[in-house]
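Hi R.,

As promised on Friday, here is the backbone we talked about, encoded as structure tokens. Could you run it through your design pipeline when you get a chance and send me back a sequence?
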């Protein structure tokens, strides 16, 4: 990572450290930071639709070990096992595979009981999404570590390509600038350039029975005053998916964004934008104001609509 010295027109390297040197502990520091910053971290991990279920979760009554972090991807109703290591560990992949096998035996009731036990934020919304959609039979795995032994990456890549397992690996790097500490997540597997051409054999997202859940069921659970108007605005264009509370591809090819999806969360509208037009963040800040918080992820951007004023600005931009 480089610092851009604008005055002298040059780049300066930041001092690179590691978790051990900085006395950053795996569970009590690194894991705790991920939990408390989940809304930001999930974009770095390319799972923008994921809810955090909990940490240090026992996957089966027959074992004493625990899963570092467990998440639920509302995009396809899959469970995500996240395994953290401060340094490289040849057993990291084996641990995550065994945890995934155990979690794969869970039914909806087991997952919901774990959520209620963990008392995670947005638990009511998460339970509602799980109740309205069948669980996917695929369990995803995310590995996070400073470094990896080659055999871990090679084996994970083989499992993904030959058997369709959904395994992603991120390396985390630590940098120092005076008293500030910076952390960078970099995807190691699959390579971003090859991700779109990977064939996920054996991965089948389950389709919910749309007749079971209607937007009339969803509306009373939305807490913002413009929820009804926003829903009618979206329904005037397309049917949407009430079971997942979203309108995928609500607009396409607008101002350089290939697709715009609107998600109806309990406390706000969440907007996902795919594509990367020039000066995208500046464009959005000009549209919605300088106080807009924008998250960047692998395929685009995300932000929340929390006020009536922002909703008016959204409607003006998206048009009829």
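Update: got your reply. Pasting your designed sequence below so it's all in one thread:
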């Amino acid at each position: 990572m480089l610092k851009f010295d604008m005055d002298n027109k040059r780049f300066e390297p930041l001092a690179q450290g590691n978790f051990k040197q900085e006395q950053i502990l795996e569970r009590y520091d690194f894991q705790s930071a991920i939990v408390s910053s989940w809304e930001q971290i999930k974009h770095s991990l390319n799972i923008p639709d994921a809810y955090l279920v909990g940490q240090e979760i026992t996957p089966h009554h027959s074992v004493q070990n625990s899963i570092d972090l467990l998440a639920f991807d509302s995009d396809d109703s899959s469970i995500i096992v996240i395994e953290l290591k401060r340094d490289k560990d040849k057993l990291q992949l084996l641990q995550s595979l065994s945890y995934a096998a155990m979690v794969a035996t869970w039914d909806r009731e087991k997952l919901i009981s774990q959520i209620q036990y963990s008392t995670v934020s947005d638990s009511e919304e998460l339970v509602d999404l799980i109740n309205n959609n069948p669980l996917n039979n695929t369990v995803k795995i995310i590995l996070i570590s400073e470094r990896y032994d080659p055999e871990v990456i090679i084996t994970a890549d083989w499992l993904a390509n030959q058997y369709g397992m959904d395994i992603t690996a991120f390396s985390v790097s630590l940098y120092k600038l005076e008293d500030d500490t910076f952390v960078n997540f970099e995807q190691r597997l699959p390579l971003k350039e090859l991700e779109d051409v990977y064939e996920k054999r054996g991965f089948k997202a389950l389709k919910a029975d749309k007749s079971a859940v209607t937007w009339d069921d969803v509306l009373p659970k939305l807490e913002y005053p413009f929820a009804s108007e926003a829903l009618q605005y979206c329904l005037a264009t397309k049917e949407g998916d009430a079971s997942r509370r979203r309108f995928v591809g609500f607009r396409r090819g607008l101002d350089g964004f290939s697709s715009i999806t609107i998600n109806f969360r309990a406390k706000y509208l969440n907007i996902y934008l795919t594509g990367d037009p020039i000066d995208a963040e500046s464009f959005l800040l000009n549209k919605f104001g300088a106080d807009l918080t924008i998250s960047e992820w692998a395929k685009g951007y995300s932000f929340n609509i929390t006020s009536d004023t922002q909703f008016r600005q959204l409607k003006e931009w998206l048009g009829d």
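One thing I noticed while checking it: The chain has two domains: 10-195, 210-318.

Thanks again,
M.
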